Amino acid sequence: MTEHIQVTRDGAVQTIRFNRAEKKNAITDAMYHALAEALEAGEADDSISVHVLLGQPGVFTAGNDVLDFMQFAAGADLGKSGVARYLRLQPDIGKPFLAGVDGLAVGIGTTLLFHCDMVFATPGAQFSTPFVNLGLVAENASSLLAPRIMGGVRAFELLALAERFDAERACQAGIINAVVAPEELEAKVLDTAQRLAEKPQQALRQTKALLKGDSAEIHAASRRESEIFAERLQSEEARNAFMAFMAR
User: Is the predicted pLDDT of residue 111 greater than 80, yes or no?
Assistant: First the structure.
């Protein structure tokens, strides 16, 4: 476990928090492993009913830590990484998974929300997926889930044109449930989580499974994206884009 992922519990609700505000909660390999461990433990614990994911005031996450990803661009094994572990886990989370977003939600900070059951955000939330700008493709089964959630043209706008969505646009697109004031965000998410925790749990999880559909399809899309992503990391296009990013 790393201090950059904090895990707390209130009754049947487990809260996982990005805790690297000085780096805009950029997610390192160790953080992905810690995030996966917390979710795996929560799934195995019958006394936990709901997972909640939060960032810090003013920033959810700036996405993948670029220095970590430079190692994979240099040839490190992406398949054994923390991000690969987390991507494999998400489609199989059977308990309700909620998130609260304030500030930046970049890259996987947006795509992980496609796997959440409910998401709330503040007016200052900003959602962006600049994968193409870095010579990459979106991951996390986004090619399947984004069009399913928001329709093909909006998904293309977010994932290919890489336009930034503000909270109002994200709500219109169906990425989030509602926009709430910053001072009310965590209370709103945690109150909703507690309300879910009070419901008949088997019926709740079966309802989630029915709504999610075939997880094998989600896994297949995620694997295909990961294969292309790994190829793209080794491309000259991606290397040039990363070098330009680091030179800023």
Answer: yes
Distance of alpha carbon 192 from alpha carbon 195, whole angstroms: 5
Kindly state the average pLDDT of the residues 34-52. Answer: 98
User: How many CB atoms are closer than 10 A to CB 58?
Assistant: 14
Q: Name the β-bridge partners of 121.
A: 101, 179
As a whole number, mean pLDDT of residues 230-245 equals 87
Neighbours of 132 (CB within 10 A): 16
The neighbouring-strand residues paired with 104 are 59, 126
Name residues whose C-beta falls within 8 Å of residue 61's C-beta, 6 or more positions apart in sequence.
18, 24, 25, 26, 27, 55, 104, 105, 106, 108, 109
Q: Give me the pLDDT at residue 245, please.
A: 78
* Averaged confidence pLDDT in the chain: 94
Query: 22 near 60, Cβ under 8 Å?
Result: no
Closest CA to 120 of 59, 170, 48: 170
Burial level of 247, CB count in 10 A (0-12/13-18/19+)? Answer: exposed
Round to whole Å and give the CA distance between 113 and 141.
11
